Amino acid sequence: MPTAAQLTDPIAEHGEGPVWDADGGRLLAVDLEQGDLLAVAPGGAASTQHVADALACVRPRREGGWVVAARRRFALFSSADDLLAGREEPRMLAPLWDDPDLRFNEGGCDPQGRFFCGSMAYGDSGKGGQPVGVLWRLDPDGSARPVLEGLTIPNGLAWSPDGQRAYHVDSPSGEIALLHVAPDTGEVLEREPWVRLADALGGDPGGVPDGLVVDAEGGVWVALNGAGAVVRLDAAGGLSERVEVGVPGVTACTLGGTGEGDDGTRGGAVLYVTTSTQGIDLDAHPASGSVFSLPVEVAALPPLRFGG
Could you tell me which residues are beta bridge partners of residue 195? Predict the structure, then answer.
């Protein structure tokens, strides 16, 4: 069973939202509740810059720059290097709610250039026993609206290679669902179960599904938070690989690199995994909060970009 190697020192309280920065040849991620942007070189050198009071997810923009989800608003910046060096402040868009107990969590862009990100209650599965998680959509014109309600901890979101369906996690459900999104309007038409992790793994997965990424073959890699592992499901939903990480708080994963070999042909990528220190016995798991990595045989899909 393959095991991911520790790539960095512990650099995050709660690492999340990893994405490959093709232009910079590096990984970008966030330390969510600290509000820090993280940049990690393939060799493991890391830099950090504080951005906001929370920072949940970062994705590239089509014309250059990045879109991020802060605590309760979206924001844009033009250069990761300038932001990391303190030479640029992100342009914050209008707040989307007033409740201080809610924050953004995780998301991704669709093929049409819209950015979807879920919100949730801080440190809990709901408020007053009710699920308050909402999936929001930021359109390229800068307008934002809720498109799916009644979620608990909305997490990983990524589209299939053909762009026809999206895989989505609401962590306490223990499953990966399919989102059917109207390509012309961005409306969520339906959310239906796809795979229950307990069924795919043949028993208790030992954790809950968290962040995910889809590879060029349509395989879905999902972090199992609490189980110290990332699993790959093939396009039919069957288990094809399990990667051990070595610390239990596995939060999210992505695939990096160009997907091309030295001879220019399609080749393997690197699986990058973010981890958390929250709720972890750090004496037993001192590498928690580090980024882990593992070369894999499948190619990465380029991250979908925000159109605004």
Answer: 176
- One-letter amino acid at 141 equals D
Q: What is the largest CA-CA distance in the chain?
A: 57
Distance set, CA 120 to CA 29, 130, 147 (Å): 19, 11, 14
- Cα 26 to chain centroid distance, Å, stands at 16
Name the strands in the sheet holding 220-225, side by side, starting at the edge strand that comes first in the sequence: 208-214, 220-225, 229-233, 239-244
Q: Tell me the two tokens of residue 37.
A: 């942007």
Cβ atoms of 215 and 235 closer than 8 Å: no
Closest C-alpha to 145, from 99, 179, 96: 96
Q: Residue 257 has what pLDDT?
A: 77
Residue-level pLDDT at 123: 67
Q: Pull the structure tokens for residue 122.
A: 């801080």
Report the pLDDT averaged over residues 152-176.
Answer: 96
At 87-146, the pLDDT tens digits run 999 999 999 999 999 999 999 999 999 999 999 998 655 565 678 999 999 999 999 999
Encode burial over 103-132: b for 16+ CB neighbours within 10 A, e otherwise: bbbbbbbbebbbbbbbbbbeeeeeeeeebb
Closest CA to 154 of 176, 171, 131, 167: 171
**Rg of the Cα atoms in the chain:** 18
What pLDDT does 130 receive? 78
- Backbone φ and ψ of 293, nearest 5°: -150, 160
Quote the CA–CA distance of 285 and 283 in Å, as a whole number.
Answer: 6
